[in-house]
Amino acid sequence: MAAMKPRTGDGPMEAVRESRAIVVYVPVEGGGRIVISVTDQEAAELRDVLAGVLDG
């Protein structure tokens, strides 16, 4: 049985370019991070959707 380790160092929200994709790391409540890989077009669509929510 593997030892359980506490989740530490989940880190901030960040995005990095890796070859043809943008990898986004989003910290989540309770520990850990969601990792999402998106294309440039998908990143632009996500930006527009989020801007619509923030502006509205």
What can you tell me about this protein's structure?
- The structure is a single chain.
- With 56 residues, this protein is an alpha+beta fold.
- The chain has one domain.
- It contains one helix and three strands.
- The chain has one helix spanning 40-55; strands at 14-18, 21-27, 33-38.
- Strands 1-2-3 form a three-stranded antiparallel beta sheet.
- Strand 2 and strand 3 (33-38) form a beta hairpin.
- The longest helix is centred in the last third of the chain and has 16 residues, at 40-55.
- The protein starts with 13 loop residues before the first strand and ends with a helix.
- The relative contact order is 0.16.
- The mean pLDDT is 86.
Number of separate helices: 1
Share of β-strand residues: 25-35%
Mean pLDDT: 86
Low-confidence stretches: none
Radius of gyration over alpha carbons? 15 Å
Extended strand count: 3
Question: How many distinct domains?
Answer: 1
Percent helix among the residues?
25-40%
Order of helices and strands: EEEH
What is the overall silhouette?
Answer: flat
> Could you say which structural class the secondary elements and strand pairing correspond to?
alpha+beta
| N- and C-termini, Cα separation | 50 Å
Let me know the largest β-sheet: 3 strands, antiparallel
* Spatial order of strands in the largest sheet: 1-2-3
